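Please produce the structure of this protein holding BES.
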Amino acid sequence: MQLRYIEGGRSEDSPELLAIAVPKGTRTLEDELSSIDEALDGALQRALATGDITGRLTDEVLIYGSDRGPARVLLLGIGPASQVTREVIRRFAGRAVRVAERLRLKQLTLSLDGLGNIPDEDRAQSATEGAALAAWRFSELMTPEEEDSPSNILAVDLVGEGDTGSLTAGVAAGAATARGENFARTLQSRPGNIATPSHLADEATRMAHEFGLGVTVFDEARLEREGMHAILAVSRGSVEEARLIILEHKGGADGHAPLVLVGKGLSFDAGGISLKPPAGMESMKFDMSGGAAVIGAMQAIAELEVKANVVGLVPSSENLPSGSAVKPGDVIQSLAGKTIEVINTDAEGRLILADALAYGAALEPEAMVDCATLTGGVVVALGHHAAGVLGKNDSLVNELISAGEASGERCWRLPLWDEYRRQLDSTTADLKNIGGREGSTISAACFLAEFVRDTNWAHLDIAGTAYGDGKVPYQREGGYGVPTRLLVEWVRSRVG
Ligand code: BES
Ligand code: MN
Ligand code: ZN
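Below is the modeled complex.
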């Protein structure tokens, strides 16, 4: 898909569809739009005069033009100009793409004018993200569609007033970030029988070669030699072998401490011997969402040539019951040397993360962030509109909250106080893998904290935000790629 900013565009070319944002209370046209209105013989002005479009968030009006200008002009209300955020812009772009699809168009033009006071680069980045995310779809497992189905958008042109350098840079950042997130969504969407741990490793390897990242994959023999028995324990019930995927971006000075991103890559979570109930179990193919986001973020970080050293770690296993599976009561070893009593085999994410976090901590990073569909508890606490963020370092947690706000992938803090750690006390091993129903998101994070030593670390629980019903205009039902954008935003913010 082609995404580009066209300087001075709009009036001389005649797009099939030009989408324009209309802030609430608009009565007359801004200067930038009067030339288009001339080509439309005053139709824009008449639409405003009827009151059919006053800028409410639900307003949508389609006007037909002539061969002197755009063939169609789509007016989309965006609410009060003072309340326009980057997320409002993403949604505006997503709505425009949805209309273009319905009209079976292959191309559309988005106007960046009238989008509040958002700086040029952010405005262009958000519009590009919204358009590119909206246009993505997962169709590789479906028989090709019939002719009256919606189209695939092949090109989005962005036009509008502003500093050309900033707008062009914003489009490039948005395009790379959305490509990374769309890759994450593709990996998420693939079912468990396709997106196995070895498939994720192969896809990460292919991507790494294409984008110039270093890549190492630990197979089971290597995991054994390294002492990563917690990752191996989770895979024991499955014929699919475990993997640890290591991606490296060297954008910083040689030997400068890296930022480490860790993502849970549980390719399918049936619960193991502590088997989950059947209803909704199919959505546990999304239990590799954190890993997918780390792979997608690493792709974007490479494409954007971010000036930092960044390491992505994705431990990947499949959690199934079988005669060889780990059992409740079993005690397993971990890379960090701590012994774990497995009370519930469905608390498997923290086991594979324990080894990956210990490996990451040994890299002595500047900071380490993990993301994981870790607990049902976070869905109860925060629903589907915020991930949980937990960590002891206030500034790191605040950086992630800010990156969440900017990227539209928001997170909200839960405490990580020592009092909760007692829920993991074991009479047999160094710790148990579950801490009961109460505050389960917090005791899960306490578990992870046992494996990071003194690393500046924070954890994102994305069980409620990684996938969903697709009600956000630029999303679709299924995998959201969350928190790819947040991770890219955070890493870029660290570079300044
Ligand atoms: N993958 C699940 C968490 C999850 C729940 C993700 C809902 C997405 C939606 C995780 O491995 C899990 O099973 N957690 C259990 C642990 C419990 C059995 C101790 C949970 O939180 O319910
Ligand atoms: Mn589980
Ligand atoms: Zn899980």
